[in-house]
Amino acid sequence: MTPLRLASPRFLRWLWGWLAGLATCLALSGASAAPFVIETRLLGRPLSAAQKASVQEAAARVAALIQSPYEPVRVDLPADSCEEGLPRLNETVKRFFVFVVVKNLDEDLYGSAQPCELHDGSFLPIYGVVDLNARGLNELSREDLLDTVMHELLHALGVGTLWTAESRVSIGGQSDDRSFVRREGKTWLYTAPRALAAYRALGGQGSGIPLDPDAGHWAGKTVCAEILSGEAGEYSGRVNPVSPLTLAALEDLGYRVNVGTAAPFQLPRPGQGCAAQRSAAGTGAAPNMPAGGFTSCAQARAAGVPTPIRRGQPGYRPELDGDGDGLACETPGR
Ligand SMILES: [Zn+2]
């Protein structure tokens, strides 16, 4: 299991930019025309309607990254396969699905996830499981729940969980000796070609992408705020971006991806740390901003502008800053 650790206060109310075009794509991805669909099967404690909607949205957003067709496969697995408490599976699986289980986990976790059974040949997961921590779930903002579920769904698809040769054994017993990671001294490095190329294109140096000690997340100091950052818990109150690194990591696993669905992303410059990345991201051109600026916070959010918008950043207007404290659109949903 690869957990997302919750390590920090959640006061940062940053909603990372998602391009409006992507949002449109996502809204459509539940339709039958979508080439890749993530079905969610809810188990455990019931979710509220709003939480269910967030889980669905996270599934749609992650599915929109992928273009691969799913290869239908017949499975007959006893109960408790993959994880204790899961039901028996006796069906032809026609699309990727995840069990989303709401239960008590360790207090410092938002959730955890893993792929369950891999296709013969492609070594892509047949299905997966995402556990969400019932403790504290109701206190999670919409953005934090979205961010958490997206992060865990990526693990369920194999990102960070199928990077070692030992993990790459198919349902029929085939094994794949490829390892995507290598240990160099005390550091784990990601070395599979697509994500490594994306890393270099962003100015990253060295023979691999530094990983966290669990070898399943980008090192927090390397990427700072990113959906698969080892320090994702430091960047709460927002949906962290799916960078070109993570999109390319899906490609390394063998998924065909929808090119252009990665979020605009910068690595922190050497020696400058994560604060510099955050302010750089915040001062970038606001995508899809009308010439006269946004007329409402809803419009700004729909265009993918991170909120709150600070005075001096594109999109800031005094009219959107009711209390005049230099932060516009600081109330979620308004
Ligand atoms: Zn994780």
Task: Describe, in plain words, how this protein is organized in 3D.
It comes from Deinococcus multiflagellatus. InterPro entries: Excalibur_Ca-bd_domain. Residues 293-330 form the Excalibur calcium-binding domain. Residues 306-334 are annotated as: Disordered. This is Excalibur calcium-binding domain-containing protein. With 334 residues, this protein is α+β, with helices and mostly antiparallel strands. The protein has one domain (2-281). It is 24% helix and 18% strand. The protein has helices at 20-28, 49-63, 142-156, 193-201, 220-223, 244-253, 273-283, 297-302; strands at 2-5, 39-44, 73-77, 89-93, 97-103, 109-118, 125-133, 181-184, 187-190, 209-210, 309-310, 327-328. The strands form four sheets. It has a five-stranded mixed beta sheet, with helices on one face. Strands 8-9-10 form a three-stranded antiparallel beta sheet. A hairpin with a 6-residue loop joins β6 and β7. α2 (49-63) packs across α3 (142-156). The protein starts with a strand and ends in a 6-residue tail after the last strand. Mean pLDDT is 84; it is low at 6-33 and 282-287. Zinc ion binds next to β1 and α3.
